[in-house]
Input
Amino acid sequence: MPSRFIFITGGVTSSLGKGLASACLAALLQARGFSVLLRKLDPYLNVDPGTMSPYQHGEVFVTDDGTEADLDLGHYERFSGVAGKATDYITTGKIYSTVLAKERRGDYLGATVQVIPHITDEMKRFILSNTEGADFVLCEIGGTVGDIECLPYLEAIRQLRNDLGRDRVMFIHLTLLPYIPTAGELKTKPTQHSVKALLSVGIQADLLLCRCDRPIPMEEKRKLALFCNVSSENVIAALDADNIYRVPLQYHAEGFDEQVCRYFGLNDAPADLEKWKKVCASIDTVSGVVRIAIVGKYVQLLDAYKSLIQALMHGGMANRLKVELSFIDSEKEPDIEAALANVDGIVIPGGFGERGVAGKLQAITIARTKKIPTLGICFGMQLTVIEACRNLLHIENASSTEFGLTDEPIVGLMTEWMDEQGIQKRCAGGDLGGTMRLGAYPCNLKSGSLVEKMYATSAISERHRHRYEVNTAYEDRLESVGLSFSGFSPDGTLPEIVEYKDHPWYVGVQFHPELKSRPFAPHPLFVGLLKAAFDHQQKS
Ligand code: GLN
Output
């Protein structure tokens, strides 16, 4: 069948979980046997989120093909299992750069280049291209209806409904029904206004997905249907959930996927929700609680660790353990030792810059000496190696060139490496945007290593996002004090993994394993870390 397009817009306020809603709908459509593609169109002017502060935008999600994307692409992958690609993420900034490059080339042949049609055409081209084989293409429009920035996207999707026809395009609007305690009611007015704002740019919502903290009484559904010009069956409650992996089943119980299929006249395929039931069962039947500390500097905005938190949850689910997380501010926590006193496992996550490094190094020393199961990710691996050089090899000045010039560059700027496009070259002072080592790279695991046991294979592929690399010049000395280099790029030049031989479970990885973990396919390193954390707890 030709691809159907579902556009998900958000109203009333941001942070209602459009990304999660889109991902859950995709999972439900898959459960009915349909193939899906998920895309996000973000309204800001950055070309990608790679240069944005984690405090503002949360985590930067990286796809296999090296696209730096919004964290919603992480939700998409975790719920649908479909790996995102460059063709699944766009920003207004990227659209404008494409249009401006065409204008400079003379492609518009004397035309006045305008938002309509040139920007909107480019948006439509993005939405319609590379959709082969997808029964449904779900496109989430970032931002909130009413924002100036969203307007060109709304215009583009309005046009697409005319171009493709009603039977191939559906508009879903996610809104908020706030409960006002003094009135004792869920209020529909903000939703009515949001639907009107959408209508004023020519888009009639076909289905309302309403975030609420309690079920919507029939009377309120009828009211919304009447004022918003939808059927009352198409007013779907999106109730708050204590665990995001319960949401697909909740949506299904509300008739969400049924109404979407009915809209497109595709009612015959029943939903097979076995795998979601199993996921919920693994949340409900835990046999223990483990405490994991994340020692990082972006802890004021937990979205900065979105995929990491999810991967830890998956590791817990695989071991039937509840994971209790504590977030330790590596810059501001005055007593790291006390903060780590009762934890069963530690994660030293990725990061950039020298701020907060001292706290992370201290946490690493504690993890190493007290034999607490630990996973160091990217920056966490680099600092693991620096800590070993300083405290085990007594190289006092051991440092990274990321922090300035050093005579002991344990971690140094990567100036050349190979990828599928050929040799990549970088230099200090070059552009910051899109120039890191990004995306999936193969890695070979040392035979007999802990990681080989964890992965149950000796060749893996993992996603990267970093500019600096551990210097192999220190490898032999580090091996002699027990820090083994157990994973390398296939050409043997780039160290990808280190692990302590005389430690129950300490692994440092140059890549980001959290980006590939899914509830149905928990990442082996997180499964291993959680198991080791549980064993550590049982022993102490
Ligand atoms: N700042 C380090 C680098 O650029 C680590 C990056 C990260 O942790 N993602 O190499």
